[in-house]
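Mods, move this if it's the wrong board.
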Amino acid sequence: MQEFDELVLQCFLENQHQLFPEPVAHSPEEAEAFLEECMAIVVHSPKEVWEYFDEQGIDLEGADEEEILSAEEIFALGDGRYLIVEG
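Not the wrong board. Structure tokens:
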């Protein structure tokens, strides 16, 4: 099971609107429960984001790094890590 630190939870709470039209969490506890339920993951580099999509069978041909990192299910945490949430 993925552990979500305070930065991850705060980032998701502040930016959940990029993936969902209505808030799905209103507190860090709700955010953690939601992220665990949808099996969100934290990766440590753009390369790991790319590898995640590749493992999921998502065709990345012709896509560049900027395009991938701007996908609505990718949340940049500001410390080099990325939260990936499948909506």
